[in-house]
Amino acid sequence: MAVLPPDPVFNLRNIEMGPVNCVCFHQAQRLFCGTAKGAVYLWDLQTNRSPLHFTVGSSTAPVNSISHLPETLFTQQKGGIVKAWQITGSGYVLATTIDTKHIGYCRFNFHLEDNLMICPKDENSIGIYNTDNFSLQTTLLGADAGLKLGQIMCFKHIEMSGQRYILAAYESGDFLTWDLRTGKVLHNITLEECPMALDFDPISNRGIYGGPHDQLGVFSYSRNTSELIKRGVIGLKNNGINCVSIRKDQKVFCSGGWDGRIRIFSWKSLRPLAVLTEHKAAVVDISYSNDKVQLWNAPIMAASGLDGQISLWNLYN
User: Fold this and answer.
1) pLDDT digits (tens, 9 = 90+) for 106-135
2) Quick one: which of 21, 119, 117 has its CA closest to 69?
3) Order of all β-strands in the sheet with 109-111
């Protein structure tokens, strides 16, 4: 007998919130989200209520990405504005604003061990910032690659054999592997499709990417040459992937689609496990709690959608 898809443990909704572009957990019991109206909402996962929200941008400068370090909340807006918010007794106060001049939708990454924030910069460059003093440490210039790359679409900080790299995908379909130490391109491969989301697991040396087509791509790296190697594709029923995310325990990975579907796959076998149909519009972000959420005594996955809700799931733990 086929296993039925699980139901969400809860759906977070607020009439004023509108479409939700991004989500992130903070200390497992708190969930933050950024909206298309340019606001940030804090959700208390012990009560499933929102005790705090504040304006970051506007409907013309929506919050496209959000991340919470131990003491600092970072927001990234359309148009390239990144803001750092410090926790105070009464809420959050703006600590600094960084204009990256990036007009696209590529999201920032963080490397917590080295206190680095990695942001799209200008059209096709990548800026490396220090999260302690918000200074720009180095820039990976897309023009230095000598290729017509177009917009940077997505990237991922990866670490293998003690070396740190940035894997970046561009509008042209180029996949560039940057050496973060030297700022040089180590390898480039051109794909037929334009990747819009990617994730990578250094333990299994395998990554996944998705874009506007009806498939997910699988890749790995040659540990000797640092060359990216295509390993095949996973076919999908409908076109369009906004996000892909590998859970930290390497048991499952999930994709969020233009069709509002959350697709769950086994990371070991790449076999599809379930299709979740809770959302009525595109799913645009997925985040996992690092620890158990007390109310459900389990790690939780949160998915945000343009239908104005955040669905919470206890998946195959």
Assistant:
1) 999 998 888 899 999 998 999 999 998 999
2) 117
3) 109-111, 116-121, 125-130, 136-140
In angstroms, the Cα distances linking 78 to 35, 66, 245, 254, 291 are 11, 12, 22, 25, 30
Strand-pairing partners, residue 35, are: 20
Count how many residues are written for the chain.
317
Q: Half-sphere exposure of residue 240, counting CA atoms within 13 Å on the CB side?
A: 10
Tell me the C-alpha distance between 144 and 175, whole Å. 14
According to DSSP, the residues that pair with 121 across neighbouring strands are: 125
Amino acid at 43: W
Nearest CA to 302 out of 74, 9, 17 is that of: 9
Q: Residue 164: which residues within 8 A CB-CB, separation 6 or more? A: 111, 157, 158, 180, 181
Which helix (H) or strand (E) segment is 99 a member of? strand 91-99
Mean per-residue pLDDT pooled into runs of 10, the chain (317 residues): 77 95 94 97 96 93 95 94 91 94 92 89 93 92 82 91 89 91 89 89 94 94 82 94 96 97 96 95 97 95 97 89
Contacts of 11 (CB under 8 A, 6+ apart): 278, 309, 310, 311, 312
Rounded Cα distance between 186 and 246, Å, is: 25
Per-residue 3-state assignment (H helix, E strand, C coil) for 155-201: EEEEEECCEEEEEEEECCCEEEEEECCCCEEEEEEECCCCCCEEEEE
